[in-house]
Fold these 4 entries.
Entry 1:
Amino acid sequence: MRLLILLLFPALAFGQKNCTGSVIDETTGKPVPYASIGLVKQNRGVSAGEDGTFRIEVLFPAADSFRISSVGYEPKLVAVAGWKDGTPVTLKQKGPLEEVVILSHRPQQVYTLNRFGHCSSHWHWVGLEAVYQRAQRIESPEPGLFLNGLELCKDGSESIFRIRIYDVDPVTGGPSRDLADTVIEVRSKESHVSIDLETYRIAIPGKAFFVAIEWLFIPFNEDVQVTRHKGKKVEHTYYKPAMRSVNDRHLKPGHLWQMNFRGTWEEAYQSYANTNFQITAKMARYGEKF
């Protein structure tokens, strides 16, 4: 038995691989900060640093692939087999969204959706689940509006995260294409965060859209929680921000979705069925519709 274990150990060790690399813009050659690097088979991942570099341990290098993505870029699949340490990965920028012309700089009508009074004491974060985005559906009072701002509640510790705005997929009812092709990045230690989006000119074509939080799996956002299991201390790593939420039994199915590291949207777990993140959307109608 000992001989068998000794013979197997080198094979197991050889099966694991520590991969390092960087993500850069195909056109400019500049780093792509905080790109997502996901393992398709393992459904696990990390975020690149501000300088575009990353490090990740791969358990099944012969059978797995990296899915590398970032807002404003076409995602790319790269086989882990044969990966050379330090390899840079280039991402190609997506084409620009259709230009929207606004004749009036003053909104004719302003709406505030999903308003909340104070920040809740309930929160949710990511870490143990193999997801890095959660998207909440918001119903618009009419089509053809613009998203001018957001307010949200989170924990009071400092964190860096991104906001993503998605259209609704007519088939699945979940998130589909990005409605903002630029990075909306937030760094805050406040519990109540206000985000001005007027300069982004985010057009909402239909009567519903999704606001997503993209967590960055970087050391700055790590939060280690210690629990006990069978008398032993167990450490779990979570990633900030912890989003504040309220319980709402009247929410319709499909209001909350999550993206895994394979790049696939799925409805959030049943435990989130009544979860309503405290995200307020401020929308406006201008004189000219798009």
Entry 2:
Amino acid sequence: MVESTGVQRSFGLVPQVKIQAVDDQDVSFSTRSASRSGDAKDSLLRTFTVPRTEVYTTPIPGAPTSVQMESGATGPLYLSSEAWNTRTPDGYGIYGANRMFGKFPNEGALPAPPMTRLVVVPTSIWISGHLEGEAEFFDLEVLGPEAADVQDIVWNSADYLEVQLTDQGARRLRVKARSTTVKVWPIKLVIKGAPSFDPSVTGEVSVQRLGFARPGAPITLALTPDGVGAFHVTPQAVAEQASSPAATQPATAA
């Protein structure tokens, strides 16, 4: 494990991983893989193993805290350029390796893109992916009759997300024992809807977490400037909504 030394090397940030195993020599973690074919269906959850000497764990002021080096932990991982270029035994690389920028730890205090929150009334929550242990891909409308009314979906590119199905959804996806809670690896998770303060404006954006207690309930999205642009609203309008005493606070979402 690399700690602060007199000789500085540069490391790049993998935004989210799930640690699978750690020993004196290696660190194994799962994260989204790059596609070899150019098809998003090729970017599956895969496990990579790198030497501990190519992982940076010392806290960096102004930068995300490194994931804990223990099995099951999730979070960011700082890798050297050599580790970023590691591949699975069947030849898959880490997603984003072709545009990795090794700026840490020297430039760790650089600000990230500003985030803002927007309350959106969704008209569609669309998941494309496959079930854990299955190869067949499917599309699922979370606001449709095949998904349960209540959901709490977390997507971090390092693990499967859990979706609650109705019996109809379980039948359509041919889930064994008709389980209504399934683990899904999504290749796309898209929200369509309108800002709650102006239903005439519509947009779509990919999200990392969403939750609601009933279909069509408002959800709060954390957006970068690109996300704000997707809904065609100005940052000022979002700021006014956030500062309004009447602003609603829906069920868990981020």
Entry 3:
Amino acid sequence: MESARTVREEVAGLNKELEKKNKALEEDLLRAQQDLLASERARKDLQSEKEEIAEEVQTASRLQLRTCYLYD
């Protein structure tokens, strides 16, 4: 009888430990997902900025070519 009680208490203690670990892992997963979303947003923003800069460079090159033709 005493050993069954001891085993039950040990199992309950292990269960609490596992629940704490599970909760910590779920919190870590949530943070990682939030970080991933933030990184993805930043990547998209940088990609848009890169495209805008490329467009500006292309426009500047065209203007420079036109200017060269005007003065030739």
Entry 4:
Amino acid sequence: MTVISHHYRFIFLKTAKTAGTSIEMALETICGADDICAPVTKKKSARPGEESYKARNYKGFFLPRLTRPDGRESRFFKDIKDLVVLQRKFKSHMPACDVKPRIGKKIWDGYFKFTVERNPWDKAVSAYYFAQRHPENRIPFEDWLPENLKQGNIHFYSIGGKIVVDHVLRFENLQADLDATLLKLGVENPPTLPRSKSEFRPKKADYREVHNDFTRDYVARVCAPDIEYFGYTFEGK
């Protein structure tokens, strides 16, 4: 989701499988009573540490839209459910094209916007072990991947094909990148990132050993925009 700090004037856009929940938990500790922090998870499924996260100011009125400026399929009926049933104006994994109209042009244009990106091959393996976290029911990676990975993350922080954030943190150097960003924003003591949702992947599961030729080429194809823009390679450079 989005974490929005009015005091430090920043907007954080959460992408998939890039330690987004850990970042949300860290940012929440520096947010004030008037800032926006959506729930990181359902209360019934909260993991250790997440129960201390205090969601706030994420409910409110907004206008559902039939079309989106990035050309993606409309989620009109899901928006209606959020508005009428759940009253969620902000929620987890909201793309920039949804956050911008809900926060307003003045705040969107005036605040520092950032997100985080990760090597797509590594990210795919992380997503697999999280989705298939019960070993007794786990299906092979090459069977799971085509049904569950359809695109990269770049659409989360792009509008009309243009990246709209001011900075993209790198997962591979996350704590240092986050510290540097928050210091520039005036946070004197940047919080340490907790570890959330990382317990499902085996510690020795190097993504290069999990992939085969098919899965490596599949990720290269569906995540081509992310790979090209950030210069990621399968070797991790």
